[in-house]
What does this fold into?
Amino acid sequence: MRRVPAENLTCCPRCHGALADDAQDSPRCTACGASYGTLGGIPVLVADADLDAIDLRETGGHLPTYDCAGLGIPSVDAALARGDRILELGAGLDTHRAPNVVMTDAFVYGADHLDVVADAHALPFADASFDFVFSLAVFEHLHSPWIAAREIARVLRPGGSCYTLAAFLQPLHGYPDHYFNATESGLRRLFEDDFEVQEAGPSRCCPHRESLVPGLRMREMARELRDDATAPWRTRWRARRLDRALMTAGHQFLQLADEMTRRPVGHESWRQIAPAVEVVAVRRDGS
Ligand SMILES: [Zn+2]
It folds into this structure.
């Protein structure tokens, strides 16, 4: 695989000017003079960054990790196999380590494996720096996802491609906030200006248990009522039944979900309630 030294690709996120290479601890733009901080040795190339808010090494440790190469995402697997110059956005919880993947996140989690802390709305990379850009469950946390789609186009070479997985039917979650869930058409539209969209649809990479989260919240509501000694006994009895029914329904759904979503009607129904949607898109020439 080709080595992609992240420090050779980074630039000032404000003006895309070169960063002074003599200032490892406080990167400085040679064009506009902006200076940047570091967290645990990782450059934070975000304008006006609040380093305390970005540092989740203590508080973010409970979040689940994953290996991007173990999720069975064909476009990611193909890019890894080709040795593409890859940019991952939201890579703070990815356990994969490969020299050709530049790992960025808006936050620093437990492991200090990120190459750069970056804001997807203003990426600190020069134009056409990458062959492939991907992100998993990042776009719902972006305040202006259309700007991030433009940034992905800018840092991709023409003909390069991107994979984006975003929340569709998922409840509120995550850092720093949760702004926009996407439909298939919405996610497709984000990329249509600068890309040829090859595929857009419900994602099989998001586990079925995500579909149970609304039921878990309903169970919390039911249990509060069940345990409220001031509520009428019939109401408390109904709340107990509701809690148990939702628990049973969740178990049964998980047992059957793979089988049901393989069938035509089941697939079409699942498509309307899938927890995540995904898009694969190729950057057009000259855009
Ligand atoms: Zn600058």
Summary: The pocket of zinc ion is lined by residues 12, 14-15, 17, 29, 31-32, 34 (CB under 6 Å). The mean pLDDT is 93. Helices lie at 6-9, 51-54, 74-82, 145-155, 184-192, 213-226, 233-261, 264-271. The first strand starts at residue 37 and ends at 39.
